[in-house]
Amino acid sequence: MRLALIPKAAFVVAVGALLVLPSVASAVLSGANGRIAYVSGRGATDAQAKIYLRVAAGSFGLGPNTGPVSLASGQHRHPTWSPDRTKIAYALGDASCATDCDIYVLDLTSPFPLPENVTNTPTVTEDRPAWSPDGTRIAYESEVSAGSGQVDIQVDPVGAGLTLNLTNTAGAGEIEGKPAWTPDSSEIYYHTGDPAVDNSLDIVKEPSGGGTVTKIVANPLVNEFQPSLSPDGQQLCFTRGTGKGFNGTADVIVSLANGGAQKDLSDNVGTEAKHGDFNCTWSPNDVFVAYVRGTFGNGDLVMERADFSEPIPIELETSLNLFDGNPDWAPDGRPVCKDATVDTGFNQPVTIELQCFDSGPFYERTQVQESAPEKTANGTLSAITQGDQEPSTVIYTPNAGFSGKDTFQTNSFDKIAGFGEPKTVTINVAPPPPAPKAPVVSSVKVTPRKAKAGAKLTVRWQLDEAASTKLTFERVVGFRMSKGCRQKPVKPRCYRYGNVGAINVANAKAGANTLSFRKLPNGRKLPPSRYRVSVQARDADNLLSNTSLSPIFQIVPKKG
Predict the structure, then answer these.
(1) Which residues, 6+ apart, have CB-to-CB distance to 147 below 8 Å?
(2) 243 Rama sector, left if φ>0, alpha if ψ -120 to 50, beta otherwise
(3) What is the pLDDT of residue 206?
(4) What is the domain extent for residue 190?
């Protein structure tokens, strides 16, 4: 196909900043379900069809229907989501889009959204826009000039830049339409042919910047048109019918992305052959295909499993004698949660915050519900207190006596996007505090070892912690005659002792302690004899130390 670059100014773009989006594919939301944007004549007529949003969650497509999201006069057609799902591009014009349809963009984050005309070509029509998954371009079909009959695929950069006429086919009657992007935005599928000639429509693909055109489905006996690629890029759905153009009976076909292994999904045969099946779109998880069953004046929005496991379509929206169709299915932002690590003391419960939030567009975020097991390997969990804008909380209680690391997984769910990725919470339970330890007394000695009666004596001792200390003075009063105590010199343990008094030190410190005295607290001096000091300490926890003994010391008369 011959390419043509058209200055953007030729298509007056209103409010260019409106279309600014992230230019990378990471802008695409991830989620198993989401919302379908579609058009409907409900509330008015098909000539004044508006855009509605329909949640389609789970295997039965359950969910609320909201809209219309734009109240502009005219017929709204073929909505397409921006990859971050904050905007919708669509065609708006007269009932047939024959002469005056333009491409508009609606910003759903605005509290009072107004459609912005991004083509503004009064004498020609543009239709069937498709937003590139990387957010940088919008492709659509456009009549090049009024009355020319030449309908080409235009690729319009978001923001500034030149519009590319990708196909630029000048042959009378031949058209290219319904662009569909590959997930990496590198190629565009579209249908091509002359709708006035029987069975002439085929599906091809082309690099999005122009290049070699590759046939995908081109059976000369049927029409193949309206392609749509699955989000993973592995499958294709399209419409197949016979005769001239896009009217009459038709089926939705599912195939590989290269057009192989075609299967009739909608199976429009027998009594069902009175209607057509058109305009397919894929669910974000590649499981379902939604399409229109019926005609423009009486079409229903249905979905069906792409693996053919359920042969009966599920009705999503029906309006008697009105149209529900042109669907485009986009994901919701799946819940995003964070791994968490908390610390707690031995035998101490801890409250844990579960940091989960809906990553979808702000205008439609819903509460995320977290779940977790009731028990962990080494503890129990309370019921989760579900938060809305604030984190949810759960209380972890370690099993009695447990210390170390325990873990559990949390799951998150919101009613549109489904489940988020499981996350891990790690709890570090501290070891038990050390058992209370009695104070230790050591290195007790009395100086001088031999002193005259009434002389100053000094007692020294060591403590491993601060404690009150009792110094008990014991006088030698005899010998023990037990075995082992009959030899000389007599060992200290072989003496018998009698208590002659004590001194209490209330604030002995950790480390070395010293006490000097001449008399006992009762006013008595130690009379001449042999003595020892036994020392015990009691700490703040009321724990009593061992008894530590000094060597024997001697008091002698003043004269002698």
Answers:
(1) none
(2) left
(3) 97
(4) 4-331
